Automatic annotation (TrEMBL):
Species of origin: Bos mutus
GO cellular component: Golgi membrane
GO biological process: one example: glycolipid biosynthetic process
Identification of the protein by name: Galactose-3-O-sulfotransferase 2
Stored Gene3D superfamilies: P-loop containing nucleotide triphosphate hydrolases
């Protein structure tokens, strides 16, 4: 009897031990679960939404949709926007941005700062900083340069000298130097490495490794986020999280996008030529498309 009682006791302790282990294990799992939930909980707890924002609006990259989101946010939150002086649509583009291109920047003396800046401009950090707060969140958007060039060709066909005299993008890419005059610099900016140009860099520079790396580092250091057009929805999720905005702040309408009608996809050979022709943009896109996350780059 005593021995079987001892056995029962041992059994009891074993069960208790198992139970304790189970609770411990469950605790671990719970802990992990809580850990997984933390970023979402943190969304609300991290503080007020970011309201000082500079968006470098690149061309033909779905950036108008982002512009619209920012304008709406500025309006609903009563924020000041750095708008172009003289009723223009852009902030001095294609010339490098100057603070005086902003409406009212010089009224009441220098030092006037704005919350939101998002119109087309050619990036020039020292001048942008003159009109934006020091804690401004900088971001931009990049698109696969092959699709970006296709879109530019359709949209700027009659404006850009390099595209004016050529019937198709295929023909242009077969012999770009026949149509592209480098000394026409600014007016041909949409015809080659246009995102590189928008970032304020030389779009005609040879794509040498040291030069490219140095400029990519500049971009990484200046911008907190590079959205990717091909991953637009994921990009918006990431943007919302970083800015701590509400969902309805980033609900987007597609603006200014080409109708499927006008899209004539390039052949694989022409795509390769486009990558070569826009080698700087190709490096830029490749770098930020793979920096982190599924298609979203965050430095
Ligand atoms: C909006 O901002 C302006 C100037 O920053 C201020 O004068 C005005 O009272 C604000 N309006 C609301 C509704 O908060
Ligand atoms: C386009 O072609 C016409 C006639 O061939 C020529 O006069 C004109 O200079 C060309 N324009 C450009 C931008 O090359
Ligand atoms: C390129 O543009 C410059 C400046 O307008 C002009 O002098 C030159 O003749 C052009 N070159 C070609 C090959 O058209
Ligand atoms: C992105 O979101 C929009 C609107 O919510 C939706 O219509 C579209 O199908 C989504 N695109 C992708 C690729 O998920
Ligand atoms: C961009 O990144 C995505 C996801 O990693 C990848 O599938 C895609 O091939 C990349 N695009 C290019 C053009 O490299």
């Amino acid at each position: 009897m005593p021995s079987s009682l001892g056995g029962l006791q041992r059994c009891f302790w074993a069960v208790l031990l198992l139970l304790a282990l189970a609770v411990l294990l469950l605790g671990c799992i719970m802990h992990v679960d809580i850990g997984l939930l933390m970023p979402q909980l943190g969304d609300q707890a991290d503080g007020p939404p970011v309201t000082n924002v500079m968006f470098l609006k690149t061309h033909k990259t779905a950036s108008s949709t982002v512009l619209n989101i920012l304008y709406r946010f500025a309006e609903t939150h009563n924020l000041s926007a750095a708008l172009p002086a003289g009723g223009r649509f852009h902030l001095g583009y294609p010339w490098l941005f100057l603070a005086r291109y902003v409406e009212g920047a010089e009224q009441g003396g220098p030092g006037r700062r704005f919350n939101i800046m998002c119109n087309h401009l050619r990036f020039n950090p020292p001048e942008v900083q003159k009109v934006m707060h020091s804690d401004t969140f900088y971001f931009s958007i990049l698109r696969n340069p092959v699709f970006q060039l296709e879109s530019s060709f359709v949209y700027y066909k009659s404006h850009v000298p390099a595209f004016r005299n050529v019937s198709s993008l295929d023909a242009f890419l077969a012999s770009p130097w026949t149509y592209y005059n480098q000394s026409l610099g600014l007016s041909n900016a949409h015809a080659r490495n246009s995102m590189w140009f928008d970032l304020g860099f030389d779009n005609g520079a040879p794509p040498e490794e040291g030069y490219v790396r140095a400029r990519l580092l500049d971009v990484e250091q200046r911008f907190q986020l590079l959205l990717i057009t091909e991953h637009f929805n994921e990009s918006m999720v990431l943007l919302r999280r970083l800015l701590r905005w509400r969902l309805d702040d980033v609900v987007a309408f597609r603006l200014n996008s080409r109708s499927q009608h006008s899209v004539t996809p390039l052949s694989p050979a022409c795509q390769e030529r486009a990558k070569h022709w826009c080698a700087l943009d190709w490096r830029l896109y490749q770098h930020f498309n793979r920096t982190s996350g599924p298609g979203c780059a965050q430095s």
